[in-house]
Amino acid sequence: MTKFRHPVFAGTHLERLEQITRDVCADFETELTEFDGESNHVHLLVNFPPKIAVSKLVNSLKGVSSRRLRTEFPELARHYYRANKLWSGSYFAGSVGGAPLSVLRQYIEQQNHPA
Hints:
Shape: globular
Distance between the termini: 22 Å
Helix content: 40-55%
CATH superfamily: Transposase IS200-like
Number of strands: 2
CATH class: Alpha Beta
Strand content: 5-15%
CATH topology: Alpha-Beta Plaits
Radius of gyration: 14 Å
Structural class: alpha+beta
Largest sheet: 2 strands, antiparallel
């Protein structure tokens, strides 16, 4: 979620954010299985081994994406001028164990397109 829930992202930002996220996941030897986003938050489905700490992965995803997006899209500055941060400090992570990927993908896709 973006800082103060500002509607920050347009399509171009989300496309770049997806690539940045894929790069960070690759560095952690994890796989970004699904990505979807709205103007003020993103949904990620990441396949990763138990040796990876979720908090470290999330902190890296937020830190790297914030630095790169602010560098590549200076116009985003108007959204984070008060706190000099793009992302909120909070996040939600859940384990999906044996749930079929098709069900998870459908859930993520529907977050941006309510029925």
